[in-house]
Design a protein that fits this description.
- By secondary structure, the chain is an alpha+beta fold.
- The chain folds into 3 domains: 195 residues; 65 residues, no CATH class; 85 residues, no CATH class.
- The strands form 4 sheets. It has a 19-stranded mixed β-sheet that branches. A 4-stranded antiparallel β-sheet has the order 19-18-20-21, with helices on one face. It has a 4-stranded antiparallel β-sheet with strand order 23-22-24-25, covered by helices on one side.
- Strand 7 and strand 8 form a beta hairpin.
- The protein starts with 9 loop residues before the first helix and ends in a 6-residue tail after the last strand.
């Protein structure tokens, strides 16, 4: 005869099982100091952790932990092990309680997001892993400077907060993506803003792309930093003391200074008749490129047919902005090419109305503006803020087929197919 069995309530059973499991787990939560364990290699050469004097690997079938503390009582780290291999989430702390490193392991291999922190608990890097290989996001950040660290703890003291309660976000340095241990797709590298409010595009230092095999491919750009200030360099490479701000007013003053100072140099001290140059410099005082030359004695407008408009202007920033630009726009409006038999030539060659800089002999030595937006001309009023390419490489499956450098003297060097070509170009080209 069949006799029914009275089973306990499933909800109650689940709760009891959970409590029992938690009790057993807590009882088996083994913790040891690093001095009490050692690594031994198994038959495959894998390093496995053992308790000293024990033949059974550490954390046999149950997670156990290696823990350490600083002399001041703060936790140093806590790492879980299962069957002698790192397993689970872990954290390293600094001696003031701030995080130093977080991540996770699965069967001894890195898996998931790893994050490293600086002295103010600002992010230093973030890396994603899958089964021990880099896979996913890869981001590096600029760490806090010593002065940043001092200000951080001073602010904590002022506001009566504990370390970690004041969030710190530092600036991104590098971002890329990894697949199976190889970089894949685009990457970007950035300058430190150094207290300036700049967009990520303005801070861009380098960018390129990797193919599916982790090899550089296509174009790779390296950029000069943003202009911090303007200076005047004399023919003997002596830099004048005045530091002009990176503004239209500063540019105007620098141009005037270059014109004035070059006239005061006797010809015997400048036998080659070299010009005074206005240079854009970065925050560290390094020269980027020259953006104006004292050899420019007149500003003129060149028509589509290549001839100059008769009217010319003095070589000043104000004359360029208010006079030359107005004349160029008037000339452009008056240029009706609809019936011109050379229209196709204009389109093909990108012929445009241009504002040009003339030397004493009337020779064009610089193009200051172009009506053709596809030209490589950097307009005079855009030269301060323009992001300039320092180096351009063309890659094909990890091999560079061409490299072009824009040197700080305004010239270019091109290496292509084993050839080396150097050209002295207009100041900003």
């Amino acid at each position: 005869m069949f006799h029914p069995v009275n089973y306990p309530n499933r909800k109650v059973q689940s709760v009891l099982s959970f409590i029992l499991c938690m009790f057993l787990f807590s009882c088996s939560d083994k913790k040891l100091h690093p001095d009490d364990v050692e690594y031994r290699k198994d038959e495959n050469g894998t390093e496995v952790l053992y308790q000293i004097g024990d033949d059974e690997n550490f954390g046999k079938d149950k997670r156990a932990f290696i823990v350490d503390s600083y002399p001041n009582g703060y936790d140093h780290f806590k790492i879980g092990f299962v069957n002698g291999l790192k397993d689970g989430n872990f954290t390293f702390w600094q001696d003031n309680g701030l995080k130093l490193l977080t991540g996770s392991f699965v069967k001894g291999k890195r898996n998931g997001l790893f994050s490293a922190y600086g002295k103010t608990e600002e992010l230093v890097y973030q890396k994603e892993y899958l089964k021990g290989e880099l896979d996913g996001i890869f981001k590096l950040y600029y760490p806090s400077s010593p002065s940043d660290v001092i200000r951080y703890f001073e602010k904590l003291k002022e506001e009566g907060k504990d370390p970690g309660e004041l969030g710190v976000v530092n600036h991104l340095r590098l971002e890329a993506n990894f697949v199976n241990g190889n970089p894949v797709g685009p990457y970007r590298n950035y300058y430190h803003p150094r207290g300036k409010t700049l967009s990520m595009d303005e801070l861009l230092k380098e960018e390129g792309s990797f193919d599916q095999n982790g090899l550089l491919n296509d174009k790779q750009y390296s950029f000069y930093p943003q202009t911090h200030a303007l200076v005047v360099n004399m023919p003997d490479n002596k830099r004048l003391d005045t530091i002009h701000p990176a503004s239209s007013d500063g540019f105007s003053r620098a141009m005037d200074e270059a014109a004035k100072e070059i006239l005061e140099i006797p010809s015997y001290r400048n036998p080659d008749n070299a010009p005074a140059l206005v240079f854009a410099i970065d925050e560290r005082g390094n020269e980027i490129v020259p953006i104006w030359s004292s050899h420019i004695t007149k500003i003129a407008v060149r028509k589509m047919d290549g001839y100059l408009v008769e009217q010319t202007f003095d070589p000043t920033y104000e004359a360029f902005v208010f006079d030359a630009k107005n004349l160029a726009e008037e000339t452009l409006l008056a240029s009706d090419t609809s019936l011109d038999p050379n229209l196709s030539t204009y389109d093909r060659e990108g012929t445009a109305i241009e504002i040009v800089g003339l030397d004493q002999a009337g020779t064009i030595i610089d193009i200051l503006w172009s009506s053709n937006p596809s030209s490589n001309v950097i307009a005079l009023d855009e030269r301060i803020d323009h992001r300039r390419t320092k180096l351009l490489r063309n890659w094909n499956e990890g091999s560079a087929s061409e490299a072009r450098w824009l040197l700080s003297n305004g010239s270019r060097i091109t290496i292509k197919d084993g050839s080396n070509q150097s050209a002295s170009l207009p100041f900003i080209r």
